[in-house]
Amino acid sequence: MSRSEPSGGGGTSRHESDRVLGELAIAAARIGTFDWDLVTGTLTWDDQLKELFGYTDGDFSHTIESFNARVHPRDLPRVSQTIQQTVDAGGDLELEYRVVVPDGETRWVLSRGRALCDDSGAVVRLLGASYDTTSRQEEATRVSRVLEAMPTAFFSLDRGWRFRYVNAEAERFLARSRTELLGRVVWDLFPAALGSEFEENYTRAMAGDGPVSFDAHYPAPLDAWFEVRAWPDPEGLAVYFLDVTERKRAQAEAERAAGRAALMAQVTSDLAGTLDAEVAVARLAELVVPALADWCIVTLVDDEEHSPVRRRLRDIGWAHVDPAARPLAERYVALRLDALEDVSFLGRALESGAMQIVDDDAAARVSAVLRPGEARDLLGRLAPRTAVVLPLRGRGRTVGLISLFGSAERGGIDPQDLVTAQEVAARAGLALDNSRLYRQQRQVAEILQRSLLTEPAQPDHLQIVVRYVPAGEAAQVGGDWYDAFMQPDGATVLVIGDVVGHDITAAAVMGQVRSLVRGIAVTTGAGPAELLREVDRAMRTLQADTVVTGVVARIEQRDDERQRGITHIRWSNAGHPQPMAINPDGTVVVLSGVQNDLVLGIAPDSRRIESEIVLDRGTTVLLYTDGLVERRRRPLRTGMAELRDLLEELATLDLDALCDEVLARMLPDHPEDDVALVAVRLHRQDRLRPPEAGPNKVPPDVPDSPAIDPDAG
């Protein structure tokens, strides 16, 4: 630390002017000054500082005791220690502390000072200034209360990766107190995060790639799985996370249970690994040969319960241990169902739900239930000694049948093999039925979601196209949505949003939030920023315990703008990927706006910003959810760059074709996340609405569009 020598010298008019200006600036900023003479012990304060500490000229004693008397008792030890260190060592002083004035009011004060030394180097004076920081501290306290009330763990890091805030829930999850965390580097406290998904994703977000979300495991001592969302901010990184260890543990336990027996694990895994029941059944035949039989046929049962047995059955999987016999088995499978008599072992197993056993002379006994012909001849050449038909049952219904055949060389039916075969059949039946229910769940989820995503309005010379693509897995159908509607004044509102989560619950919450947006927008006529703020407050009032990202855009046009062939759009962004606009010349711009505000569900009373742009008629605007541009191995920034290049390439397509091509080119065969998008093309108004835009669709209470002269322009 440096020490400054006191200086002297006479004043000049220039110096006097500088002094006066300095005093005026200090007064305007409400800054008080102090001068503590350590030789005499005299403490001198100006009037501004006396007022700040609640003193008058009459009751200020000009001693350090007057200062100590006003400092908050809890802060006094720290403050006294810091001052004494400065007196002992010299250098500069900076302190922020509380003072209690006579009426009981507590104020926050920030003091900065410098020690002055004599010729021997001893500190003889302490000069400085102080000012009131109460309002800043109160604002920080309000934000802190919001973060402390959150049901989600939250912490923030500065650009040096140091903790600058930690809420109570984060303390609990991280198993460290704020005292241990604040000011410390995250990589030092949690070294196992280095080289992991935590470092990779945090670095991406801090580098400006935008928000990131991921699941990752942190080893002991935490030994926990976390679902993380991180957003960059001007000061560093904001991180929200949930402990999902129990969910991950349940998934791992299910996987371990599937592996307890090798054959059972394979059967369950293969059947659960595909939604195509026919493919799954074909795999089952290959799994049980030769472990349980020399050859096998697997049959699927259709749902038409009142049809004849032969019409309800389809042989769709088979296997034979002997390569030389496989052509015979393949031909037999192609013919045998049509050759069945009305009474057969397959029919009995299907009708009764009970296992059918032929423990000897199976070739003759099975032939007896086949009509004369090629199928019976082939069975004679295959010459099975034993046969077992097991129903594959799930939830009280037979969904399939498995026929196991043993040759003479294999011997009789082994009791343990039979028990294992029954277990395989039971698991296979449940898996097949799960497959059916899985598809139904997906259909229900899609129907639920699509029922909430209504057709958009089609205002005058605006063509609006919407698309929704569910994720590749049923459990991933979630909370993405689009909307396009009109407010009573004739303005068109576009909405794109994403409720955090990937399940049917997220889809249901999405419906509630979407209804809030629509209802508030139509009844209040609010602009984008006000609308998002009111929706956020409504979510708090209705205790909607969720986090939502979204963009609301409002398309407006004044009479003079209509004459000039332009339109302006106002929008507000709540932590969502930025929209893009395709200009009439084919260039693409990202609508980054002034800033991205907080997501909904965090701080309902926070201020929200609106951005505005003027667009030529012929422009296309695209709003989309993050599933279009972000994947595990494709950062958000990369995906947005790809989308921008693709839009330039597709700029000349009609709007429906453009949206379809964007989805086809940007998404993999099995998307990890659901995707919603809404696009609007601002057709020229000096000619008739183009046929590809379809008819106008507007509410009956919205003002009629102005008349158009098709020959104008």
TrEMBL record:
Residues 686-713 are annotated as: Disordered. It comes from the Bacteria. One of its GO terms (molecular function) is phosphatase activity. Residues 45-90, 139-209 form the PAS domain. Gene3D superfamilies: 3.30.450.40, PAS domain, PPM-type phosphatase domain. The keyword Cell division does not apply. Residues 93-145 form the PAC domain. Keywords: Hydrolase. The keyword Hydrolase applies. NCBIfam families: sensory_box. PANTHER family: STAGE II SPORULATION PROTEIN E (PTHR43156:SF2), STAGE II SPORULATION PROTEIN E-RELATED (PTHR43156). This is SpoIIE family protein phosphatase. It comes from Cellulomonas fimi. The lineage of its organism: Bacteria, Bacillati, Actinomycetota, Actinomycetes, Micrococcales.
